[in-house]
């Protein structure tokens, strides 16, 4: 448990993940029926961009900092509105806060965070929000234990692991298989890093062979993924994408290519398995 998200909050990868999360939640909110969100690797919920950890890397400057200074056309306006409302550029909201801000009275959010300090911070953040519950437990194990959601038949599962372990891609594929087994109609979204192509290709191939249907992969690279020591881009795999999601996501991803320092950024949406 060495990973602390505060070093990376608001970087390009967070912007990509959270802009797409907003689009997924907007799609769920189109129907009045309640939905439930399970955030398996939730983090601490809000990050002080002037704090020691964020200041050490300054990653947010190349991410949300640039988007706020000069918003590129195509970015979902709701994402930037929400980030500003959460306190940017002083504070950046993590995925549980982004979600909580978009819940309606009938919806629920369940968060898992294993780091003791971060789960405590998250619990304090939502102490007065009965719609949100926080578990200090293993998010992968929660996929088997907490799905299908009790409160609603519609919902989203976000799996956003730290990729500290060498076998994280296979744990992620296994996590998606478990989530799909327990909640076949749910929208499942899983984030992954793109350092170089080979591990990503193997991960997507394993999903092709998994028997799960209706999968798309959305990817943003800031530069060609050739140097395996750098985070050159990231992706979000979505199982059961809502109607119209890919069409709404493409302009958002294209807008985020503006974050490429040398203009070699690229955005792609690939269908991995047909419906
Ligand atoms: C990439 S960060 C999450 C960021 C958050 N989803 C967001 O977008 O704001 C990954 C988080 O997972 C936590 N973590 C690591 N292993 C875990 C596990 N097995 N179960 C739950 N949380 C875990 C880490 O402490 C870290 O806070």
From TrEMBL:
Key words of the record: Methyltransferase, RNA-binding, rRNA processing, S-adenosyl-L-methionine, Transferase
Transmembrane annotation, as ranges: none
Enzyme Commission no: 2.1.1.266
Residues noted as binding S-adenosyl-L-methionine in the record, renumbered to the chain: 18, 41, 95, 113, 138-139, 160
Signal peptide: none
Designated name of the protein: Ribosomal RNA large subunit methyltransferase J
Record-level Gene Ontology MF annotations: 23S rRNA (adenine(2030)-N(6))-methyltransferase activity; RNA binding
Annotated site residue numbers, Interaction with substrate rRNA: 3
GO cellular component: cytosol
Family under the similarity heading: Belongs to the RlmJ family.
Protein function: Specifically methylates the adenine in position 2030 of 23S rRNA.
Gene3D superfamilies to which the protein is assigned, alphabetical: Vaccinia Virus protein VP39
PANTHER family: RIBOSOMAL RNA LARGE SUBUNIT METHYLTRANSFERASE J (PTHR37426:SF1)
GO biological process: one example: rRNA base methylation
Catalysed reaction, written as an equation: adenosine(2030) in 23S rRNA + S-adenosyl-L-methionine = N(6)-methyladenosine(2030) in 23S rRNA + S-adenosyl-L-homocysteine + H(+)
Active site residues per record: 160 (proton acceptor)
Oligomeric and partner information: Monomer.
Domain of life: Bacteria
């Amino acid at each position: 448990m060495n990973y602390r998200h505060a070093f990376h909050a608001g970087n390009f990868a967070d912007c990509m993940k959270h802009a797409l999360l907003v689009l997924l939640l907007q799609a769920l909110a189109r129907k009045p029926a309640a939905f439930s969100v399970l955030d398996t690797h939730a983090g601490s919920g809000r990050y002080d961009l002037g704090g020691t950890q964020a200041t050490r890397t300054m990653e947010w400057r190349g991410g949300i900092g640039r988007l706020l200074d000069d918003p590129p056309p195509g970015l979902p306006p709701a994402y930037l509105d929400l980030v500003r409302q959460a306190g940017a550029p002083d504070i950046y909201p993590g995925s549980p806060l982004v979600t909580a801000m978009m819940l309606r009275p009938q919806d629920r959010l369940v968060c898992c965070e294993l780091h003791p300090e971060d789960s405590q911070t998250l619990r304090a953040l939502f102490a007065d929000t009965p719609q949100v519950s926080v578990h200090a437990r293993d998010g992968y194990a929660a996929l088997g234990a907490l799905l299908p959601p009790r409160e609603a038949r519609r919902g989203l599962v976000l799996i956003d692991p730290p990729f500290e372990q060498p076998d994280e891609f296979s744990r992620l594929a296994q996590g998606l298989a478990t989530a799909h087994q327990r909640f076949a109609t749910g929208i499942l979204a899983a984030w992954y890093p793109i350092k170089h192509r080979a591990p990503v290709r193997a991960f997507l191939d394993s999903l092709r062979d998994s028997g799960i249907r209706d999968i798309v992969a959305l990817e943003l690279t800031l530069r060609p993924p050739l140097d395996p020591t750098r985070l050159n881009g990231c992706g979000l795999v979505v199982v059961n994408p809502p109607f119209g999601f890919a069409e709404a996501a493409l302009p958002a991803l294209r807008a985020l290519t503006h974050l490429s320092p040398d203009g070699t950024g690229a955005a792609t949406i690939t269908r991995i398995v047909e419906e």
